[in-house]
Amino acid sequence: MSKKFRIIALIMCLSLLVSACANNASAPTANPAAPAAPAAESTEKPAAAPVAADPVKLTFWTFQNAHQEFMQDAAQAWNAANPSKPIELEIGVYSYDDNHNNLLISLQSGTGAPDIVDIEIGRFANYLKGTPQLLPLNDIVEPLKDSLIMSRFENYAKDGSYYGIDYHVGIPVIYYNTEICDAAGIDIDAIKTWAQYVQAGKTVLEKTGKPMTTLETTEHWSLYPLVTQLKSDWLGADGSVTIDDPKVAQALQLLYDMMYTDQIAVAAPGGFHHAEEYYGFMEAGGAASIWMPQWYMNRFTDYMPELTGKIAIRPIPRWEENGAYGAGLGGTGTAIPNQTKSPELAKEFLSFAKLSAEGAIKTWTVLGFDPLRWDVWTRDEMKAQNKFTDFYGSGVFDMLVTLKDQLHPINVGELYPNAQTIVQSSVVFKVLSEKSLAPQEALNAAAQELRAQQ
Hints:
alpha/beta, D-Maltodextrin-Binding Protein, domain 2, 2 domains, four-stranded mixed β-sheet, 13 strands, globular, disordered N terminus
């Protein structure tokens, strides 16, 4: 090649190089915030950074502000972990009746239901009648069965399909005011049976003048744990009415005796353990103890803060020292109506929020509840300082983990909502407040009313 042609070729190569550098310099970067990549010897064009997807809107209905906060937190965590499929969670918080009534209307009419919805356990049976208009959740539940308290899923099941995921286990526990018990010389760890509890109550009354406990006269939380310990229920596993079972009468008679024979119990001010009058009474040291499900922990922290450091949590007494412990109680099943346009995404998010290890831990740190995943109960995060450990100490789950295999499901048949209402509005009031009916009489009347509805 002549010298002239070599010069021309060199000029053309330089021109192409300058042009290529200019084009690369003017091209926009896919992620301006990302650090510059190191220079590479390869001449291949680098792959573009992934572009965040547009969020998919999911609607969520609830009747609890605390559940709203929990799901908002879960949505933020989901978006941080899943930038390729973010969600926009639109939350509606309604009154208890509006939430359930509007959902029922939406499902019956075939339009207007949310993507995800909270259904309180006492109403859940209403949505399982006939062919449920909710999506089965077996595909997100069954892979984790070995890590879950499965008795809580049976509460929201029909014909082998799970339709709801709860926020908690709801293990019944007893909350002792240690200041009162210590003043009476009571060793709360020595109380294993209800007979021993009554005897301790007599000592508390004699030494301090305080009642041992309070009993609900317009709600079911004082009665129901004792009933489930006797392996009885308002309904049978087949949906039959069993509220007049003599075992239910036995439990109700014990409450009556505590209040009127042994006089170690008083009616809860306001009629139930969520009344404003009740919170004030207990915060002032009104009674030595109360039994409620574990989720009641946040009622003490939120409404009775003066009792910080004075409340100890223990297993509830049993009918016999080695007798049955009972069932997880209360709850809200989160479900996915079959009207959702994003069924798989809704399931994935619900699993992330409630069934993942991270979500289970937040069930405790955000809500103060006992998570459905028992395998996180012994993790360090469950003992880390928060408002609940500040109030009760850090050993709550060391105690609860010993009870996880002793829980059985309750029987949530189609008449369950009606049975619950009758117990609350009639049975316990007539026996414990009016004293107008004996326990078995009140239960016979309730059974007759329920059977007429079958």
